[in-house]
């Protein structure tokens, strides 16, 4: 059976003579240059009205991008977070929608521009050493000018050019304005040293706000806890910020499982095996909320820092370098769990006045 096969349709039929035995065959003898494929014109290349429609579409998309940028800045200024869940959600939603419209406008406009208005012909330019003077220099300058003209940016389509540069120039403001606004914020670092917990403040279930009796907490149960407050307090204070610093995870262990349960002064910080620790990881501030009952370990889902709550929540694994601060608790006359005081040390990650 012959090894020769019919060439595929459209393939070159050039036949080269069989080389003599022992003679090397170079690429030039085996392959031919297929050249540049025939250019297929688009509708915008042949119909001026279609080109005009495409130009208007791209311009509108760039203008939408500009409006999105302005909208996000207006939302940042006029709809700041007011401390409530609904207020934070509304502010974030409006800023995010503005940024989405701005970015999508630029991206879609760029793609549509490239597909309909920019030149799509293929060019072949021989590679050679460019001289700084003479005919080669003039050729290079001519090629650059042709490329600029072919892109449709310079020399024509003035409205499109203005919308293009306007969208690109304004978009960074959507990021710069919030950053500049945050620079002038509250830099009082003492607020990181204390939370709203005070002596006698009851522990309440998050998010219902119902106070917790010690008798309601069974061995092995886990409670997400916040300070008990009134509805009036939540409406008149920055409740979201205060809550974010005061959140606590409370667990009840068998008292004999507690290996460390005292402050440096010897005071007891738990009640009949009930312990409460800050829910904010000391690594980068993620919520520590995964409890393993058999080992008494708390796991941070972000970077797997692990804390042993039977031993003062010390770090047993992961990148955190400080234990979780403990909230000292006791019970009041009605049997409700209350705080003895605020956390004995700053909550959350380390900062410039607390390295450890």
Describe the protein's architecture and organization.
With 356 residues, the chain is of the alpha+beta class. The chain has two domains: 43-122 and 134-181; 192-339, Rieske [2Fe-2S] iron-sulphur domain (Rieske Iron-sulfur Protein, 3-layer Sandwich), CATH 2.102.10. It is built from eight helices and ten strands. The strands form three sheets. It has a four-stranded antiparallel β-sheet with strand order 1-2-3-4. A four-stranded antiparallel β-sheet has the order 5-6-7-8, with no helix packed on it. Helix 4 (85-116) runs antiparallel to helix 6 (158-183).
CATH fold category name of the largest domain: Rieske Iron-sulfur Protein
- End-to-end Cα distance, whole Å, is 82 Å
User: What is the alpha-carbon Rg in Å?
Assistant: 35 Å
Instruction: Tell me the helix content.
Output: 25-40%
- Give, in order, the helices and strands: HHHHHHEEHHEEEEEEEE
CATH superfamily of the largest domain: Rieske [2Fe-2S] iron-sulphur domain
Uncertain segments:
1-16
DSSP strand count: 10
Determine the structural class based on helices, strands and strand pairing. alpha+beta
CATH class wording of the largest domain: Mainly Beta
The outline comes out as elongated
Question: How many distinct helices?
Answer: 8
Q: Could you give the order of strands across the largest sheet?
A: 1-2-3-4
Tally of individual domains? 2
Mean pLDDT: 81
Strand fraction equals 5-15%
How is the biggest beta sheet arranged?
Answer: 4 strands, antiparallel
Question: In CATH terms, what is the architecture of the largest domain?
Answer: 3-layer Sandwich
């Amino acid at each position: 059976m012959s090894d020769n096969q019919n060439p595929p349709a459209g393939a070159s039929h050039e036949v080269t003579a069989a080389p003599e035995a022992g003679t090397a065959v170079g690429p030039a003898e085996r392959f031919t240059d297929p050249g540049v494929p025939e250019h297929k014109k688009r509708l915008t290349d042949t119909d001026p009205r279609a080109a005009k429609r495409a130009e208007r579409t791209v311009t509108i998309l760039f203008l939408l991008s500009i409006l999105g940028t302005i909208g996000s800045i207006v939302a940042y200024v006029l709809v700041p977070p007011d401390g409530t869940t609904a207020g934070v959600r509304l502010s974030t939603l409006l800023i995010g929608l503005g940024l989405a419209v701005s970015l999508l406008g630029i991206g879609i406009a760029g793609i549509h521009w490239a597909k309909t208005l920019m030149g799509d012909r293929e060019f072949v330019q021989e590679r050679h050493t460019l001289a700084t003077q003479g005919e080669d220099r003039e050729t290079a300058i001519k090629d650059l000018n042709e490329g600029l003209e072919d892109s449709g940016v310079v020399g024509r389509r003035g409205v499109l050019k203005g919308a293009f540069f306007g969208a690109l120039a304004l978009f960074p403001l959507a990021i710069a304005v919030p950053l500049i606004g945050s620079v002038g914020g509250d830099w009082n670092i003492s607020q990181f040293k204390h939370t709203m917990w005070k002596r006698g403040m009851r522990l309440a279930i998050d998010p219902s706000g119902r106070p917790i009796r010690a008798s309601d907490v069974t061995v092995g149960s886990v409670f997400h806890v916040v300070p008990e407050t009134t509805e009036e307090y939540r409406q008149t204070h920055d409740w979201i910020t205060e809550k974010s610093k005061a959140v606590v995870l409370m667990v009840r262990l068998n008292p004999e499982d507690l290996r460390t349960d005292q402050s440096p002064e010897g005071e007891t910080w738990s009640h009949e095996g009930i312990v409460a620790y800050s829910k904010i990881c000391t690594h980068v501030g993620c919520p520590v909320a995964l409890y393993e009952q058999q080992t008494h370990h708390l796991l941070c889902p972000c970077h797997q820092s692990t804390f042993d709550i039977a031993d003062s929540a010390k770090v047993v694994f992961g990148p955190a370098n400080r234990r979780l601060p403990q909230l000292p608790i006791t019970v009041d006359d009605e049997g409700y769990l209350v705080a003895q005081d605020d956390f004995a040390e700053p909550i959350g990650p380390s900062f410039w006045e607390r390295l450890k």
